[in-house]
Amino acid sequence: MNAHTTSSNARRRIVVAGGGPAAHRFADAMHTRGLEGWQLTVLTEEAHLPYDRVALSKALTDMEYDLTLGEAAMWDHEALDLRTGERVVKINPDGKTVETAAGNSYAYDALVVATGSNAARLPIPGAEHSHVYRTLEDVWAINGAIAALREKLGREVTAVTIGGGLLGLEAAAGTEQLGAIPVVIDGANWLMATQLDEGAGQALGRLIKEKGFEIHGGVFPSEILADDDGQVTGVLMADGRTIDADIVIVAIGVRPRDELFRAADGEEQLFSLGPRGGVVIDEGCETEIPGIYAIGEVANFGGMCLGLVAPANTMAEIVADRLHGGAATFPGFDTATKLKLSGVDVASFGDAFAKTEHALEIVYADPARGVYQKIVTTDDAKTLLGGIFVGDATPYMSLRPLLGRELPAEPGAFLSAAGGGDAPETELPDDAILCSCNNVAAGSIRDAINGCGACDGQAPVQELGELKSCTRAGTQCGSCVPMLKKLLETELTKSGVEVSKALCEHISLSRQELFETIRILELTSFEDIMAKYGTGAGCDICKPTIASILASQHSAYVLDAGRGTLQDTNDRALANMQKDGTYSVVPRIAGGEITPDGLAVIAAVAKKYGLYTKITGGQRIDMFGARLEQLPEIWKELVDAGFESGQAYGKSLRTVKSCVGSTWCRYGVQDSVAMAINLELRYRGLRSPHKLKMGVSGCARECAEARGKDVGVIATADGWNLYVGGNGGATPAHAQLLAKDLDDDTLIKYIDRYFMYYIRTADRLQRTARWQEELDGGLEHVRQVVVEDSLGIAAELEAAMAKHIGTYRDEWAETLKDPERLRRFRSFVNAPDQKDDSITFVPERGQIRPATNEEKGKVLIGASIPVRGEGTFN
């Protein structure tokens, strides 16, 4: 046995058992604090430098993808010694040494164990024929096996993943990207049952099925079947069914690798272990034996072992602090997680299951299209306790730092999917944690931006990349980057510094610059745009933005040519989702005018399909309760009768509200109905940065509430007054007078210019009111451009609007012409004729409404087990 010691007896020797993310973070923390007087040896059984297990799916689909953590140059430091292929097999506390499988012995003054966990295996016959999903070697093996099977079988490969948690879904998504048919088997009744409540789990299930995944839930596998050559043929289920399979991947969780702390037969047990494994540590991350620490998944604190980035990083920092003479303590597990799985947002934080006494749950659910948002508060609806988000996790970014604090607005204002307008602006307190992975508070970020010593005396930080490097915020999972960028821009603005208008981290152009670039170069595809002006695969910011820009400029069918995956959720169904998973059908009723025959058609359709009907605030008739597969049937009847889509689902013109005007009203001075119909038919289908609403009032009594709209028109004895920049929502604004006493042609010309100028220059999801406020010069600038043509672009703006009008096609009429487009409208991708039986209605006031959970006889249940993602090593 060889004994390894340091070259200088003056140095204190630290040995790290394990070479995963937790070990890397500890070495980095020691390196940052200074290694003078230390010799740190990291022993890892793998052949690689420490790599990012959170991003393992990238290596599954791209075997050349580099997952290496940090800068490889760090390991060149003379006091850092990384030894690969060295697996620690024994700790000798008395002699303060560890032994490795290679027969080597390493002496230590302090030992840090970061051995992580192993993938759990299935205790069923045939399990030896399955793959697991844990290491680089595991994902490389899966990649190679699928490629070999495809060549051998000469057909598509069916890849069955056992496990419906995030690890399993991530593995299944990877197989789908490799060209295999993805099948998921899960013993629970809904996906991620240990992380999501029933509503969220059902929403996730619909999204996964929509992507072509086959899901088998509520039953366990009993055997993995294989032929005489060991080739997998299927999975035998406990209910007797056989599910075809060519390859099986098991991703059912992990087990702490705590064997170093378990006594051999006949030896005394020196370390306390948790009931489910893991060595017990104190608040300093130290075991019962002084000088021996444990961090990451192998460490059990408060009876829990968690595979999350944030607590592992915190543990690593605490041990580094303690070894440097500090007294940092571990505060407990932060289980907040956010991730994106094959384009599906999932987030969870705090008391997500409302276990706090008298906790209040505020929920918005569209399970049929996979959107579920829940905020948990105290019973007075003021203090934020937690939340769950599936399909649209936009609120997570602003809510997560406010955990345990009083919300700045009523909870419903933060449910972005409910369509109540933009979420309230939030000023984060200095002690609010913005980056949970690295435990970085908003105050530390402000210090870095303002040059207050956060970056070792460096000058103030003005770039996002520099800010991430200085503070470490946003460098792990990246989910906090949008909030980090927003805080940077806010602080720079306060300091009088010009702020970058980059659309997102993938596109350095602003939305306005991107719009002009696409227009001038006549680009027509997301792929071409990203190849020329972007990096990576895009994100939730740039994808729908580019989709909107392409729709604005070309008026092409929004779901063709790969644009369907870029669109927001409502656009993908060409319908508005409701809380019970059904959809609303809103035909256009221009200006609110409808004939008795038209009313009869709507009545017949509503009666035939059992829909709830209501007059909307925009003077239309909304029909609620349609299932996804019913939408084409309903719309065929409506289109055949002359109706078209009211686009209640799009970032586009919604309605033009009108009063009855001079044709009937004794006070009317202009024909407001005729003008409203003219405007609505002119601007229908016009895609924009945010939804657009208009109003036309026939006199100054303003019955159409035109000044509450993006564009409002009010009749005068001499013509029309034009108001712009009004909106409702969480921050309502009155429209302002742009021009007065206009004739019909001039009015329309100015509106053409106004809308097109807004569409070209506004930021993503920016309402006209906010856009006008932020323009240099505000309303006066708008007046100069629209009325006086100060930029010399009036003819160009009018021509762009004329192009839109000339190329407009009703989206539902176009959908009904194409069988391939109709394939989208199925509740279950793999069972196109199956109806969703989970949708239940009850009668009320002579119509229907969605049944409550109590009326369905169901109880939402869930267990507070962390979600893997923003956060997890598994």
What is the gist of this entry?
The protein contains 24 helices and 39 strands.
Descriptive keywords:
874 residues; alpha/beta; 5-stranded parallel beta sheet; 24 helices; 20% strand; disordered N terminus
Can you walk me through this structure?
The relative contact order is 0.08. With 874 residues, this protein is an alpha/beta fold. Residues 1-8 and 858-874 have low confidence and may be disordered. 28% of the residues lie in helices and 20% in strands. The chain has 24 helices and 39 strands. It has a five-stranded parallel β-sheet, with helices on one face. It is globular, with a radius of gyration of 30 Å.
Q: If you average the pLDDT, what whole number results?
A: 85
Helix content: 25-40%
Range of strand content:
15-25%
* Biggest pleated-sheet summary: 5 strands, parallel
Structural class of the secondary elements?
alpha/beta
In whole angstroms, how far apart are the ends? 34 Å
- Parts with pLDDT < 50 across at least 5 consecutive residues: 1-8, 858-874
Q: What general outline do the C-alpha atoms trace?
A: globular
Number of strands: 39
The DSSP helix count reads 24
User: Rg, please?
Assistant: 30 Å
Main-sheet strand order equals 4-3-2-8-20
